[in-house]
Amino acid sequence: PGGSDLKTLAKQVNTAYLKNLSMTKKRARSILSGKTSSTSPFVIYDVDTLWKAESGLVWSQLAPGAPLTKEIGVHVFYRCQCTTVETVRELTEFAKCIPGFVDLFLNDQVTLLKYGVHEAIFAMLPSLMNKDGLLVANGKGFVTREFLRSLRKPFSEIMEPKFEFAVKFNALELDDSDLALFVAAIILCGDRPGLMNVKQVEQSQDNILQALDLHLQANHSDSVYLFPKLLQKMADLRQLVTENAQLVQKIKKTESETSLHPLLQEIYKDMY
Amino acid sequence: LKEKHKILHQLLQNSTSPVDL
Question: Sheet of A141-144: strands edge to edge?
Fold first, then answer.
């Protein structure tokens, strides 16, 4: 495709991203830096502030479908699941708007989402994070990293690797228009196991990657190695997802009182 | 694949919100 085609593609993907993902990096950064006119997020830093947040201050209802539990680590695990499920739904709608995605076999669309959504979520999570914590509940709450670290094992191990990734990823200073193309490239990945039409997926991903490369040259003209750095981040994200899947398996095995949302069961089953 | 990924299929085929969160 020519330059103008790639610019059109970048615009389409950016519009789809802004339309379907509820929390943009722009909004998150404005909340985190205190520059927004809306009220500051409620800070969750210990058990008391967590239950205050759960009593209607931050979340309007307890984690739906999750059994009531007094164990704090289990509770946080359910909250992570709720957010993940909601984001999978948003990512599915985003994927449907990426040019070429709905033309793929339905089976291949399922495969791309199964393997791509967690990488996409961990690529978007840094937008909500700084080194001290992360925004939750659509920006109404801020959970401190220290509180998440203080949970008992294995629950304390859920978020820490994502913070470590986020600190490095945020140093690249991507904006929503860059992230839109990056996330689209993650979803349209030609080497997911079990794809029926690999060539078709590779062709779509190639177009997205060309659009991303061109977009970065214009949007980050002073950062010459940004495109290859992002290709490396794709590999890092795959590793992060593998470790996350192993941790979820461990929690399932050792924490008999926890349950996994049916959508996440589908995604994790026979994944890696 | 369809049998094993019913909710993902449902999400892909419906534009409204079919998943009970």
Answer: A42-44, A141-144, A133-136, A129-130
Residue ranges with strand state E in A108-175: 129-130, 133-136, 141-144
Please say if the pLDDT value at position B16 is more than 60: no
Of B4, B6, B11, the CB nearest to A92: B11
pLDDT tops 50 at residue B20: no
Q: What average pLDDT does range A108-132 have in this prediction?
A: 98
* Digit-coded pLDDT (tens) for A187-234: 999 999 999 999 999 999 999 999 999 999 999 999 989 999 999 999
In terms of Cβ atoms closer than 10 Å to its own Cβ (0-12, 13-18, 19+), residue A190 is: middle
Query: How far apart are alpha carbons A226 and A232 in whole angstroms?
Result: 10
Q: Does B7 touch chain A (CB under 8 A)?
A: yes
Dihedral pair phi/psi, residue A42, rounded to 5°: -75, 130
* A218 to A21, A210, A214: CA distances (angstroms): 24, 13, 7
CB contact under 8 A, A110 and B5: yes
